[in-house]
Write a structure and sequence with these properties.
about 140 residues; mainly alpha; about 60% helix; globular
Length: about 140
């Protein structure tokens, strides 16, 4: 999870030179969110598998985290659920039909939000940036 977050930061910096790399950074940050949710569920004594022993889908994983009291639904500025929006974006970025481009500001916002979600799940391991620092990054 830590390496995925680091990769997202490096990709954001490399995106200054080649904007194709920005989507890699966003995807890595979304993978880090998924890994963090899985690890947090397991650390709480829950299971990240379905009844057939397969890993839970992103949506089911999020529902499990909510049912265990580890997370809450959280709307973004457009009133979309952050985790649901992240799932949709992750699916789009994971299965592209062509190179996807994101505006630099949007990519940084998505990466920053992913870092904040991970920091909330593991507050002692990943201290969250202040609101002021997050605003400056966008």
């Amino acid at each position: 999870m830590r390496n995925l977050l680091r990769k997202s930061q490096v990709a954001a910096l490399c995106g200054l030179i080649s904007r194709e790399l920005l989507t890699d950074g966003v995807l890595s940050s979304l993978h880090a969110v998924e890994a963090a949710i899985r690890q947090r569920i397991l650390a709480s004594g829950g299971s990240d598998s379905n009844a057939h022993g397969r890993p839970l889908s992103w949506s089911d994983l999020f529902q499990r985290a909510i049912s265990l009291g580890l997370m809450e639904r959280e709307p973004d500025e457009a009133k979309r659920d952050l985790i649901d929006y992240g799932r949709e974006l992750r699916n789009s970025l994971s299965h592209p039909s062509d190179v996807m481009y994101l505006p630099y500001g949007a990519a940084l916002g998505l990466i920053g939000t992913s870092h904040q979600i991970v920091a909330r799940l593991f507050p002692t391991s990943f201290p969250a940036a202040s609101d002021e620092e997050t605003s400056r990054a966008r």
